[in-house]
Design brief:
212 residues; mainly alpha
Length: 212
């Protein structure tokens, strides 16, 4: 789950820096950008945010249906399926950015890359939601940081799950840094390939440790 959190940072670094200031993993950011665009602020593109939201939801619908169907299967099989779907979508996005110009506004490459990465992240969110691992959503940190503070000694709590919460924050931060470096100083396909590889390897290693 920590490795998956890191890939969220990678994907959002790619989308914000390389795809025109849009989020494909963090939908809260797109709602905020839509609100800013609604008052006429320059540099914000409502069609990109609406497209990201729509394709993210499609991915979540698919993830929800497949996840509920797969709950009758062993967990290792479900994780392997989910990891494969995410990885294929991110690697397809890498293929698109290698062969199309994603820098052109309203281009096929731009919208295809947004769709593929948002589909992957929507599918991920639905899968993680069904897994119900506390404080490990892998894509958002507001509740995690709230829990870290509210359950701390200063907040009158017992510091429950503080290691997991800090690890989640650190993983997404590290993923953003890595994704930003690869995006700014390399090819846009590189962070997408890395994210897909991390998802596949970490999920399969986890699945191998689970009972068949």
């Amino acid at each position: 789950m920590i490795a998956l959190s890191a890939t969220t940072g990678i994907v959002d670094a790619v989308s914000v820096l390389g795809l025109g200031r849009v989020f494909t993993a963090n939908m809260t950011g797109n709602i905020i950008f839509l609100g800013v665009a609604a008052v006429g602020a320059p540099g914000f593109s409502p069609p990109l945010y609406l497209w990201a939201l729509a394709t993210f939801m499609i991915g979540a619908i698919a993830g929800g249906r497949i996840g509920k169907h797969a709950q009758g299967y062993p967990l290792r099989r479900w994780l392997a399926i989910a990891a494969t779907v995410e990885t294929v979508l991110l690697w397809l996005a890498a293929f698109v950015v290698l062969h199309y110009d994603v820098k052109l506004p309203a281009s096929f490459g731009l919208y295809a890359t947004i769709a593929l990465t948002a589909l992957a992240m929507g599918f991920r969110n639905a899968t993680v939601r069904l897994l119900k691992v506390a404080d490990m959503t892998t894509t958002v940190l507001t509740l995690t940081i709230t829990g870290l503070a509210a359950d701390s000694t200063l907040g009158g709590g017992d510091n429950s799950n503080w290691r997991r919460r800090i690890a989640s924050v650190a993983a997404i931060f590290a993923g953003v840094v890595l994704g930003a470096v690869l995006t700014l100083h390399g090819h846009l396909a590189a962070p997408l390939l890395v994210a897909g590889a991390v998802i596949l390897v970490s999920s399969l290693l986890c699945a191998l440790r689970l009972p068949s």
